[in-house]
Amino acid sequence: MEDNAILDLYFARDELAIAETDRKYGTYCYTVANRILCSREDCEETVSDTYYHTWNAIPPQRPDVLKLFLAKITRNLAFSRWRKLSAAKRGGGETELVLEELAGCVPGAVCIDDNLNLKELAATIQTFLDTLTRRERDIFLRRYFFTDDAQTIARRWGMKRTQVNTILSRTRKKLKTYLTQEGYDL
Amino acid sequence: MTGEQLFIAIGMVEESCLARCEYDEKPDLVADREDSKMKVNKIWLIAAIVALMVLLMGSAIAALVKMDVQSTKAIMPSQEIVDGETVFVDKVFEGEKVTFEEVHDEFIELEAYYPQMIPEGYEMTFVSNDAPMQHRVIHFENGAGDLIKYWLYLGDSASVIEIYEIQEKLEVDVNGLPGILYVQKGDTRTLVWADEDKGFGFALRANDPAVDLLAMAESTAKGEKLTPTHSAETLQALEELGDFSPLDLPEGYEELDVQGWPLSGDWYSYVRKWYVNKAENTRIYFEYETYRIVTEDGYTDDAKTAASFFIPGYVSRREEVVAEDVEICGMVGIMTQQHIAWADPDTHKVFHIYSEDVTGEALLEVARSVVRND
Predict the structure, then answer these.
(1) In B70-81, which positions are buried (b, 16+ CB within 10 angstroms) versus exposed (e)?
(2) Which residue, A71, A111, B115, B353, has most beta carbons within 10 Å?
């Protein structure tokens, strides 16, 4: 079923919307969650939560691209779950590595203490992404949005893993510089 | 700032940005789910049992209601499309930004534009009500189940149109407007054309080879005003929930649209209203709906609990959200700078007003002026 037809089902409050979403994007959502959580049970519950949030968000939202709308919700719910689950047993896993890498981009002790500041930071990152080449942007988002490992990204781009790591390292440095220029080192 | 906060912020980037990354998704990257595919019924079970817990995990619902009234003017393709690939229409339309103020009236008028020549055996079966989203969809179907879809949209609000597995593309002229006919795998064809001066885009898709898409496109003209398919449900929702609206809107605001859905099954009914100041391109969103809260101990009628779900972060990060208790027309409510939610435990209705464009104090005045009209 096309996205638009699925969206029409959501607008009609027809529960088939969930079934059709699951049929078309269930595996995809599971994959997004699995990159962060690596636990079947947690991934399944995160996907269920994703549908619940989607049901509540549409309408009034009418996402431009349903797949990516779902990806954002799934990714963010998976990360919330990961934080909750790993609070007591930090260490290991791709998500931990991603966070460690990102911590290296943090330019200073600037305090991000509310949702508004996070939104501003997201807007800054959005602008930063526009400064990257298509390949850099894809690799950055693959790693830091979808939590892909370097090997998977390398396969996608037909590159060596070390090349991906080099590009990621360079892009992180660029991000740090960019954030500093934007005043995030105060 | 921490790595985690940076990770969360990256999770907030716009979908259009992700689309550039997702555009050439390779199938081998999709993981096998083996036999773990859940039954859909489980979703509802989980939702019912742990509704409260689920809501704890996300504070974004209310933030998602923002209607983006700035869009990109539709112009014709400026980039090469590689044959055999899938594109979204926002990939082929790009251009300067236009504001709601500039196009709203024109869009409303253009909503009455649709193909006047309907192929034999087809009839109109669905008309969307997407004025706030600057988007209209019409379905035509025949007895054999073939579907023709027509889209009218303002610029990049069309990106839900996915043109997949393109085999061939032909430049065409639609009554003097530039267009492209995409021939896709199977019998599917999608014709997109644009009025570049006005910034509007159109598209038609059919999977029935007997349909002359170009002739249908050329017949697009002003017709009778169409009634959205689900208007009756909105009216029914207004009857069920009552027709509430704020009396004291800030100067320049007017109601743009109302949508609703009556109670069906074991879910909830809702009414949503959009108010816009066209001159300033700002808006206020108002909704009310039925609620039922499930906790570990059973159901609760607690109004503050019901209202709290509409305040982003209030449930999950209470200590971090600056919110205050307010009284709205004798009911318990919660207020932040952008959101006010209040609930009536007697009728199990929760109300929510949201705006990024007016102050919290102004929003409070709007909330306190809400009355039932019927």
Answers:
(1) ebbbbbbbeeeb
(2) B353
Burial-class residue B34 by CB neighbours within 10 Å (0-12, 13-18, 19+): exposed
pLDDT-derived band of residue A111, with 50, 70 and 90 as boundaries? low
What angle is formed at CA A160 by the lines to CA A91 and CA A173, rounded to 5 degrees?
A: 60
Task: Retrieve residue B211's tokens.
Answer: 């349909």
In tens, the pLDDT along A46-62 reads 888 898 889 888 877 78
The answer to whether A82 and B289 have CB atoms below 8 angstroms apart is: no
What part of B 188-247 touches A (C-beta under 8 Å)?
A: 230, 233
> What does pLDDT average to in each consecutive run of 10 residues of chain B (374 residues)?
81 74 36 26 31 32 27 41 44 44 64 90 85 74 88 61 74 89 86 79 90 95 85 89 94 86 70 82 84 61 77 58 87 89 89 88 95 90
* N-to-C CA span, chain A: 50
State the nearest Cα–Cα gap between A88 and chain B, in angstroms.
16
DSSP B74: P
> With helix as H, strand as E and coil as C, how does A121-144 read?
HHHHHHHHHHCCCHHHHHHHHHHH
- The Cα–Cα gap between B26 and A118 comes to 31
Identify the pLDDT of residue B78: 38
Distance CA A9, CA A98 (A): 37
In chain B, what residues touch A70 (CB-CB under 8 Å)? none
Tally the C-alpha atoms within 13 A of residue B256's C-alpha that lie toward its C-beta.
29
Token couple for A134? 């298509």
In angstroms and rounded to an integer, the radius of gyration of the C-alpha atoms of chain B is 23
Q: How far apart are CA B154 and CA B103, in angstroms?
A: 8
Bridge partner list, B341: B334, B352
Closest partner residue to B272 (CB to CB) among A53, A59, A126 is: A59
Contact A53 B65 (CB under 8 A): no
* ipTM attached to this prediction: 0.77
Q: How is residue A5 written in tokens? A: 């037809």
Beta carbons of B204 and B137 less than 8 angstroms apart: no
Backbone angles phi, psi at B195, to 5 degrees: -100, 95
Q: What residues of B are in contact with residue A65 (Cβ under 8 Å)?
A: 15-16, 18-19, 22, 88, 159-160
pLDDT at A119 over 70: yes
Collect all residues of chain A within an 8 Å Cβ-Cβ radius of residue B5.
112, 118, 121
CA atoms of B342 and B74, how far apart (whole Å): 40
**B229 DSSP 8-state letter:** T
Classified as helix, coil or strand, B365 is helix
Provide the pLDDT for residue A124: 87
Inter-residue contact A149 to A94 (CB < 8 Å): yes
Judge residue A141's burial from the number of C-beta atoms within 10 Å of its C-beta, 0-12 exposed, 13-18 middle, 19 or more buried: buried
Cα(B208)–Cα(B191) distance, integer angstroms: 13
CB atoms within 10 A of CB B94: 16
Cβ distance of B11 and A8 shorter than 8 Å: no
